[in-house]
C-alpha cells in the first residue's frame, strides 16, 4: 500500500548493502518474522527497509509504515496506531495487495473480525466501518492494556500477509515497546515485523524493546546490523548521488575521511557541494571539500543546506526545528510568525507575507524537511538539532512561546508537548500546569511510566516552591510505587523527605511510598524497612496509611528480625486499622495477619483463609475483591514455601480468577514467580528455564519476582552440574546481598549453594554457608522455612566433622516444627535424621529415616527430592552387592535423566562402577556396553586430570582423531556433556563422605 514515507527523496542507488538487503527480504518472505535493523544515526536503516518493501517479491503484502519520535504524548502506542490507520487509506488498493480476500478489503468484515478488535474503535476512528462494536470498558488500566494488545494482534492477523515497519525504536515510549514485545513474542502467522533503532540511543543498552524477548521456534528472527561504508562503497555512493560518472579516488577518500563512511552524512556533504562545471576537473571539488566546514554529523552540512534556502523557507525550517516532531502545515505557519531578534530576524522579515506551503515545499525540495503522512519534519533528529542549535537563545524562547500559543488552541491539547514548550519558553508556572495535567492524563491511560517521567522532570526543577514540591512529590511517590521506577525517583523522594519543614503527614506518605518502592522494586529491604518504620511514626494522625505501613512491616520475608517482631507489627496494624474508614485497609491488614500465621505453620490458618475468600462473593465491592485477590497471591507464595503445594495452586488460581473479575490482570504477574517454584518442585522442568528467563525479561529486576526466577535457574543448573551458572544464579537470587533478599528465597538458595560447594570439594566454604543459613533460621524462628536448607546444611556439617552441631540443629528443627503445619520442613527433618544416622554408622536407622523422608516427599509430589532420597537408600545398601539394589539404582539413574537431572543420573551410574556392581543387562551385552573399555578408562583418567586431546594422543601413541572418538564415547557412557564432568564426585549426594 502507498505511504507518504515511501515517497521520501532518497539517494538513487543503494550501495554496499546487498547482503543485508537479501537477509531482510528473506526474513520478510518467511513469516512469522521479526527483523531488527540496527545502526547509528544516518547509517541507512530507513533506506534499506524501503528498498526491501519495494522489492517485487514483497509487493503482494500489505505494507504498514510507522516511526517513533523523540517527544512522547501522554497517549501511548502512537507509532503503532499511526501505521494501523493506513489500513483505511485506500481500500481499493488494499484489494490489490491482498487478492485472496474476495470481499474487497484486506480486512475481514466487522462481523467476522475477532470481537476484541472493537477495543480499537476509540483509537482508530478511520477504521470504524471495519471494526466490531466496542466492548464494555474495564476498570483496571492494566486489563484494558492487555485487551488492547490482543486487539492489535487480532487486527493484524485479520489483514493477512503484512509487513509492519516501526522505525527509530530508540525513541519509543514504554507502552509502544510493551506492545511490540507482545507482538513479536507470538506474532500472527502471516506478519513480518521490521524494527529499526540506534543501539547507542536505546533506553536500555542492548535491548531495543526495553527488555530481552524470545521469539517462538517457528518465528524467523534476524538481526541486521549496518556498519559505515568502506572507501570503495563511498566512491560508488558519491557517483550515484552525482548521477553517475567517474569519481576521482582522492575525492572519495577525502569524503570517506570526513564522513567516516556514514551514508547519510556522505549524501549531505556531497549534495551541499556545488555542481562542477561542464568539462571541469574534479580538483575544484576537492578544494571546496577542504574549505567547507565539514559537519560533526550534520551541523555544518545543515548550515550549508540552510544557506541555500529562501528566508521564508529558513523560517519554516527553524519553526520545524523548535516543534521537534513532524507537524502539520498550519502549525509550522503559525510558529513562523513569532517575533524574532538577532540572526533569525531577517528570516522572519523575509517570511512576512510568504506562502507557508511554498516555503515548506522549498524546504522539502532541498531535502531539509521531509513529508511524514501530511506532516513535515526532519529526516533525522541530528538534522533538527543542527538547525535548532544555530538559533540564538532569545529566538528559541520566543519560538517555543509561539508554539505554546498555537498548541493551546488544539482540542485535545497535546499536554506533553505543551509542557515541554512551556518549559523551554521560560514559563515555569505554565510548565507545571501542563506537566501535571500530562501526568494525570498518562496515569488515566495506564501509562504510569510516563507519569513518573513527567513528574520526575518537574521535581528536578529547583524553582519549585515548597508547597508545590511537596504536592508533586506525593503524586510521584504514589505513581512510582505502582510502576517500574528508576533509581533517580528514589533519590528525588529522598531529598524531599529530608526537608524538616514538611508536615509530618505529607512527609510520612512520601516516606512510606519510598520505603515500599525500595523494598518491592529496588531490592533495598534494609533501607526500605527503616523508611517504613519512620513513616509509621510520621503518619500517627493518618491511621489508614499508618496501618498500611505497619502491615508491610509485619511481612516476615523482610529483614532478619525474630518472629515476635513481626507479630507485634501486625498487632499494631490491626489497632490502627480499627480507626480506618476504608474497609479495604482492614482487609489488607487481615490478609497480612493470615500470611504471617501461614509462614509460621499455624494449623488454624486454613479455615480463616477460606472465610476471607468467601467474602469476595459475587456481591463484593471491587476494592474488597482486589484486596482478596492480592491476598491469595501472597497466600500462594507462602504455601509454596511451607510445602502446601496443592493449596498453593488452588490459591493461585483463585487469585487469578478474582483478579479477572475486578479487572486486575496485573496480579497474574505477581504469582508467576510462585508458579516457577511450584513447577520446579513438581518436576515440570521442560521449558522451565526459558520461562524463568522470560520472567526476568518482563520484571526487569523487580526484586521478589526476579529472585524466584534466579532461584529456579540456580536449581536447574545445579541439577545439571553446571556449577558456575548455578553459583551466579543463586547469588542473584539473594546470596550476594542477603540483607536485601527475601528470607524464604535466601534459605532455599543457601541449600542449593551448599550442594554445589560440596560438589566442588569446598567443604569449609559449604560448612560456613550452612552455619549462616542455620543462624538466619534460628534468629527468625520461622522453622517452617527450613525445608530446602536443612538437609544440605546438615550434610555440610557432617562432612566437615561436626556431627554434634548437626544433631543439635536437627533437634532445634524438630522442636521448631512440633505442632506446626509445615510439611516440607517435616520431610526435611526425616532426611536430616537419615544423614546423621549414616554419619554415626547406623545404616539400618538411616534406611528407616530415609524411607520416611521418601514417603513424605512423595506425598508432597516432589519427585526430584524423593528420587534423591531414594538414591541415599540405595547407596546405604549398595556395599552389600545386592543385584536388586543395583538394578534399582540403575532405574533411578534413568528417572533422573528423564527428569533432566543429568548430574544425578551420572552420579548413580558412577556409584555402581565405584562399588564394582554390575547390574543385569537390559539389552544383551555388546562389547563393553555402557562400561568403559580399558582404553577408554585410560583416556578418561587423562581427561579428568586436564590433559588435552593432543597430549593424550602423544602419551598413548594414538592419533588425535582416535582420541576424539574415545573422548566422545567416554562422555556418552558417563552421561555427561563436557570434559570437566568426567571426574565425578559423590559430594553433592545426601550421603556423607567416608571418614
From TrEMBL:
Pfam families: AAA_16, GerE. GO terms for cellular component: cytoplasm. Residues 914-933 are annotated as: Disordered. Keywords: ATP-binding, Nucleotide-binding. Residues 925-990 form the HTH luxR-type domain. It comes from the Bacteria. One of its GO terms (biological process) is regulation of DNA-templated transcription. InterPro entries: AAA_16 (IPR041664), P-loop_NTPase (IPR027417), Sig_transdc_resp-reg_C-effctor (IPR016032), TPR-like_helical_dom_sf (IPR011990), Tscrpt_reg_LuxR_C (IPR000792), WH-like_DNA-bd_sf (IPR036388). One of its GO terms (molecular function) is ATP binding. This is Regulatory protein, luxR family.
Amino acid at each position: 500500500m502507498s505511504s507518504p514515507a515511501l515517497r521520501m527523496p532518497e539517494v538513487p542507488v543503494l550501495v554496499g548493502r546487498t547482503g543485508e538487503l537479501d537477509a531482510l527480504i528473506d526474513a520478510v518472505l518467511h513469516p512469522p518474522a521479526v527483523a531488527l535493523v540496527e545502526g547509528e544515526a544516518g547509517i541507512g536503516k530507513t533506506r534499506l527497509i524501503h528498498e526491501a518493501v519495494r522489492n517485487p517479491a514483497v509487493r503482494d503484502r500489505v505494507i504498514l509504515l510507522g516511526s517513533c519520535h523523540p517527544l512522547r504524548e501522554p497517549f501511548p502506542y502512537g507509532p503503532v496506531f499511526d501505521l494501523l490507520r493506513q489500513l483505511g487509506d485506500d481500500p481499493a488498493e488494499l484489494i490489490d495487495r491482498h487478492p485472496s480476500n474476495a470481499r474487497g478489503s484486506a480486512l475481514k468484515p466487522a462481523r467476522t473480525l475477532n470481537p476484541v478488535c472493537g477495543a480499537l474503535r476509540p483509537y482508530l476512528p478511520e477504521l470504524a466501518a471495519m471494526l466490531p462494536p466496542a466492548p464494555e470498558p474495564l476498570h483496571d488500566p492494566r486489563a484494558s492494556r492487555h485487551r488492547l494488545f490482543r486487539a492489535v494482534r487480532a487486527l493484524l492477523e485479520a489483514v493477512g500477509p503484512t509487513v509492519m515497519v516501526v522505525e527509530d525504536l530508540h525513541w519509543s515510549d514504554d507502552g509502544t515497546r510493551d506492545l511490540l514485545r507482545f507482538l513479536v513474542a507470538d506474532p500472527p502467522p502471516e506478519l513480518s515485523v521490521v524494527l529499526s533503532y540506534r543501539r547507542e540511543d536505546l533506553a536500555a543498552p542492548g535491548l531495543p524493546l526495553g527488555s530481552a524477548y524470545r521469539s517462538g521456534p517457528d518465528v524467523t528472527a534476524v538481526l541486521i546490523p549496518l556498519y559505515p561504508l568502506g572507501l570503495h562503497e563511498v566512491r560508488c555512493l558519491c557517483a550515484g548521488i552525482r548521477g553517475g560518472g567517474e569519481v576521482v579516488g582522492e575525492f572519495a577518500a577525502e569524503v570517506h575521511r570526513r564522513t567516516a563512511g556514514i551514508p547519510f552524512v556522505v549524501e549531505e556533504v556531497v549534495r551541499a557541494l556545488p555542481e562542477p562545471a561542464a568539462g571541469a576537473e574534479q580538483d575544484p571539488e576537492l578544494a571546496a571539500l577542504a574549505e567547507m566546514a565539514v559537519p560533526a554529523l550534520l551541523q555544518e552540512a545543515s548550515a550549508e543546506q540552510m544557506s541555500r534556502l529562501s528566508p521564508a523557507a529558513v523560517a519554516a525550517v527553524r519553526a520545524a526545528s523548535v516543534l521537534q516532531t513532524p507537524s502539520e502545515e498550519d502549525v509550522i505557519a503559525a510558529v513562523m510568525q513569532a517575533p524574532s531578534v538577532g540572526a533569525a530576524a531577517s528570516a522572519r522579515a523575509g517570511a512576512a507575507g510568504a506562502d507557508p506551503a511554498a516555503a515548506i515545499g522549498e524546504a522539502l525540495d532541498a531535502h531539509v524537511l521531509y513529508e511524514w503522512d501530511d506532516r513535515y519534519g526532519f529526516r533525522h533528529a541530528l538534522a533538527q538539532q543542527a538547525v535548532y542549535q544555530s538559533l540564538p537563545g532569545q529566538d528559541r524562547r520566543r519560538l517555543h512561546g509561539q508554539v505554546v500559543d498555537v498548541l493551546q488552541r488544539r482540542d485535545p491539547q497535546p499536554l506533553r508537548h505543551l509542557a515541554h514548550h512551556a518549559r523551554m519558553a521560560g514559563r515555569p508556572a505554565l510548565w507545571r500546569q501542563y506537566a501535571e495535567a500530562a501526568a494525570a492524563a498518562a496515569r488515566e491511560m495506564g501509562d504510569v511510566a510516563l507519569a513518573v517521567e513527567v513528574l520526575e522532570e518537574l521535581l528536578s526543577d529547583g524553582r519549585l516552591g515548597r508547597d508545590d514540591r511537596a504536592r508533586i512529590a506525593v503524586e510521584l511517590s504514589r505513581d512510582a510505587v505502582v510502576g517500574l521506577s528508576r533509581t533517580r525517583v528514589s533519590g528525588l523522594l529522598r531529598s524531599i523527605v529530608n526537608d524538616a519543614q514538611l508536615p509530618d503527614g505529607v512527609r510520612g506518605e512520601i516516606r512510606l511510598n519510598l520505603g515500599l518502592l525500595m523494598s518491592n522494586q529496588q531490592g533495598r529491604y534494609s533501607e526500605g524497612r527503616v523508611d517504613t518504620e519512620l513513616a509509621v511514626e510520621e503518619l500517627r494522625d493518618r491511621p489508614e496509611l499508618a496501618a498500611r505501613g505497619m502491615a508491610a512491616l509485619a511481612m516476615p520475608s523482610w529483614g532478619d528480625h525474630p518472629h515476635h517482631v513481626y507479630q507485634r507489627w501486625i498487632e499494631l496494624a490491626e489497632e490502627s486499622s480499627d480507626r480506618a474508614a476504608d474497609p479495604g485497609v482492614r482487609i489488607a491488614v487481615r490478609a497480612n495477619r493470615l500470611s504471617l500465621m501461614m509462614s509460621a505453620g499455624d494449623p488454624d490458618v486454613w479455615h480463616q483463609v477460606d472465610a476471607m475468600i468467601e467474602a469476595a462473593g459475587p456481591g463484593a465491592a471491587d476494592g474488597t475483591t482486589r484486596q482478596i485477590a492480592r491476598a491469595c497471591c501472597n497466600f500462594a507464595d507462602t504455601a509454596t514455601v511451607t510445602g502446601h503445594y496443592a493449596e498453593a495452586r488452588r490459591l493461585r488460581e483463585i487469585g487469578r480468577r478474582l483478579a479477572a473479575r475486578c479487572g486486575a490482570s496485573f496480579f497474574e504477574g505477581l504469582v508467576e514467580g510462585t508458579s516457577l517454584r511450584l513447577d520446579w518442585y513438581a518436576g515440570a522442568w521442560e521449558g522451565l528455564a526459558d520461562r524463568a528467563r522470560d520472567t526476568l525479561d518482563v520484571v526487569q529486576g523487580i526484586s521478589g519476582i526476579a529472585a524466584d526466577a534466579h532461584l529456579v535457574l540456580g536449581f536447574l543448573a545445579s541439577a545439571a552440574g553446571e556449577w558456575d551458572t548455578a553459583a551466579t544464579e543463586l547469588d542473584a537470587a539473594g546470596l550476594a546481598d542477603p540483607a536485601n533478599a527475601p528470607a524464604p528465597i535466601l534459605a532455599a538458595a543457601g541449600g542449593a549453594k551448599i550442594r554445589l560447594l560440596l560438589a566442588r570439594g569446598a567443604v569449609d566454604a559449604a560448612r560456613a554457608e550452612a552455619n549462616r543459613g542455620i543462624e538466619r533460621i534460628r534468629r527468625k524462628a520461622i522453622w517452617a522455612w527450613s525445608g530446602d536448607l536443612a538437609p544440605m546444611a546438615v550434610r555440610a556439617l557432617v562432612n566437615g566433622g561436626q556431627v554434634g552441631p548437626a544433631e543439635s540443629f536437627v533437634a532445634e528443627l524438630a522442636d521448631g516444627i512440633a505442632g506446626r503445619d509445615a510439611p516440607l520442613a517435616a520431610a526435611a527433618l526425616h532426611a536430616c535424621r537419615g544423614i546423621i544416622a549414616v554419619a554415626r554408622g547406623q545404616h539400618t536407622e538411616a534406611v528407616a529415616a530415609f524411607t520416611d523422608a521418601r514417603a513424605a516427599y512423595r506425598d508432597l509430589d516432589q519427585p526430584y527430592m524423593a528420587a534423591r532420597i531414594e538414591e541415599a537408600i540405595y547407596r546405604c545398601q549398595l556395599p552389600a552387592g545386592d543385584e536388586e539394589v543395583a538394578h534399582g539404582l540403575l532405574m533411578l539413574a534413568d528417572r533422573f535423566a528423564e527428569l533432566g537431572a543429568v548430574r544425578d543420573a551420572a552420579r548413580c551410574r558412577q556409584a555402581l562402577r565405584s562399588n564394582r556392581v554390575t547390574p543385569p543387562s537390559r539389552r544383551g551385552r555388546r562389547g563393553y556396553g555402557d562400561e568403559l573399555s580399558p582404553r577408554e578408562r585410560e583416556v578418561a583418567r587423562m581427561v579428568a586430570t586436564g590433559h588435552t586431546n593432543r597430549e593424550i594422543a602423544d602419551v598413548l601413541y594414538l592419533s588425535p582423531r582416535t582420541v576424539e572418538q574415545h573422548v566422545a564415547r567416554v562422555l556418552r557412557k558417563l552421561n555427561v556433556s563436557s570434559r570437566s564432568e568426567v571426574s565425578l564426585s559423590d559430594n553433592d549426594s545426601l550421603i556423607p563422605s567416608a571418614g
